[in-house]
Write a structure and sequence with these properties.
- This protein is an all-alpha fold and about 180 residues long.
- It has a domain of about 100 residues.
- The radius of gyration is 18 Å and the shape is globular.
- Pfam families: Chromate_transp (PF02417).
- It comes from Undibacterium hunanense.
- It is a multi-pass membrane protein.
Length: about 180
């Protein structure tokens, strides 16, 4: 693809990723999307990507909102709409196809193998996403410590993650990080 059609290039990339992220896992594809739009194509900066991701995660609604914001940064409203559709349509069609197959073959070995495969893949994507966001515009080692501490708190307690997000925002406003 040439750089004359960034939306087509981005939509094809997102469509392929959406096929691997059925069920909402697109948020775990953030490292690949970041690499594509920031490092490879230079359409947005790492700060813009991190901000779009943070805004989308803080806003109510589906986790894939950051894709819409990245599309908007690249090509305005058209970009937001087209990138959102590029993510939703392929994975929806795949899901509907698998559901129709699964209802006819509920307990096959293939069904069990596919189900057992998704857990480690999801964990790997989640770790890659965490690594990416500790590297984007990382101010200091304190940021890494706070990120690790927040992850431990979320995993070990029933504290609402929104409280940690708010604490991080306050720390950032007070320039503690």
């Amino acid at each position: 693809m040439d750089d004359q059609s960034p939306m087509l290039d981005l939509c094809l990339h997102l469509s392929l990723l959406s096929m691997m992220a059925v069920g909402g896992g697109l948020v775990m594809m953030a490292p690949d999307i970041s690499h594509f739009v920031v490092t490879e194509k230079h359409w947005v900066t790492s700060a813009q990507f991190a901000s779009a991701y943070a805004i989308a995660q803080a806003a109510p609604g589906p986790n894939l909102l950051f894709i819409s914001l990245v599309g908007w940064l690249i090509a305005g409203w058209t970009g937001a709409i087209v990138t959102t559709l590029a993510v939703i349509i392929p994975s929806t069609l795949l899901t509907l196809s698998v559901i129709s197959l699964k209802t006819s073959n509920l307990n096959t070995r293939l069904t069990a193998a596919v189900r057992d495969t998704f857990a480690p893949i999801s964990i790997g994507f989640l770790l890659a996403t965490a690594c990416l966001f500790t590297q984007l515009d990382n101010a200091s080692w304190r940021t890494d410590v706070i990120t690790l501490l927040a992850a431990v708190i979320v995993l070990r307690s029933k504290l609402n993650p929104v409280i940690l997000i708010a604490a991080g925002a306050i720390a950032g406003m007070l320039h503690i990080l």
